[in-house]
Write a structure and sequence with these properties.
about 425 residues; alpha+beta; 5-stranded mixed sheet; 15 helices; globular; binds protoporphyrin IX containing FE
Length: about 425
Amino acid sequence: MSDGSIDLSADARAKAWSTPLEDFHVADPVLFQTDSMWPYFERLRKEDPVHLSKGNEETGPYWSITRYNDIMAVDTNHQVFSSEGGITIAETPPGGMPLPMFIAMDPPKHDIQRKTVSPIVSPQNLAKLEGLIRERVCLILDDLPIGEPFDWVDKVSIELTTQMLATLFDFPWEERRKLTRWSDIATASPESGLIESEDARRAELLECLAYFTNLWNERVNATEPGGDLISMLAHGEATRDMPPMEYLGNIILLIVGGNDTTRNSLTGGLYALSKNPDQEAKLRANPELIPSMVSEIIRWQTPLAHMRRTALQDVELAGKTIKKGDKVVMWYVSGNRDDTVIENADSFIIDRDNPRRHLSFGFGIHRCVGNRLAEMQLKIVWEEILKRFPKIEVLDEPRRVYSSFVKGYETLTVRIPARL
Ligand code: HEM
């Protein structure tokens, strides 16, 4: 183990440093599932920071951008690096259902659709949501079992983020776990075991569309438009005539955007603290550090490992020529560990000087819409945890998600010790 945060066998490191660079395929989900991608990225940052990989059948060839500043350069140049061709490295599989959504659009359409949903995270709306989120966080935490093992991912991370999404959509409360399921299957590969086939995924996503179409129809006819996301889309000038698949795409975007990411930051934070007891002691001695710790968790976790672009013209980057049409992958997960920009980047340090200096929310016109909402939610959870539980023990290593896009956890077994 190097710093307590990266559990890596000497074998994985030796393999990463002995594999020829031309055989690197850092998008292999197995590397993420086994948490062994770190030395591959470390080597790329040192030896070939803008690297062309052959990829495999699923991805085709792709460029890996691995240093902080090069990632910034790509992310802030949407004129050359387009989102239109898709934002994940994998193409829509054969038989799969391509979904238009504004994260995968360029201006002007992107800008108009983004503007339609942005009021949901205006400072006024966040202030309104804060009390509600705190109330729900308290209920969830007060209901946790004491003195016996349970899965933190299911009981806390999933439940909390699902409740938040249900609030944003004003979704039928009792059925809110449908949102979790749709979020999971939207990004799952058939190898993950979550879905049987592309046909099965299509069928479930069409159920999602049917469900949300009913909600749209209810809200579009309301005399007073509600402040929820569906009402915003149904009444928005730029979105009210969207074709059904575009509606579905944007719903999936909002579900996945708000769900997986915050969920995995909630789990990642607890895990990081358990690996770094000195940081936990610092936090408990000084809860004022919560906001800066939240940013550090989001950097350290990097819940979305990459975003992809497509080059619209030939372009030079770090001495390499990227050709028009090439796939360009910004590895946020690597840029966030670039120690030429972030000191001691592999370490989890909750009181860094500039904690919001990270790439996890991206930059440029697609910078995460929900970033302040996510931070607020995590801040509330940690405030309420510190008030209640002097200790949460992590009993085992987590099981990680099979994906090089969503960087997260399937399970994390914990126990809250009974008080004497
Ligand atoms: C820790 C939590 C989160 C992380 C790490 C995260 C990360 C990201 C990233 C990396 C992007 C793309 C940035 C780029 O391409 O430059 C993004 C976009 C987006 N996120 Fe988040 N996100 C989080 C939470 C949320 C929440 C809570 C919501 C909404 C409720 C949300 C909604 C969106 C949307 C709608 C976009 C598309 C923005 C656009 O294309 O203009 N995200 N997010």
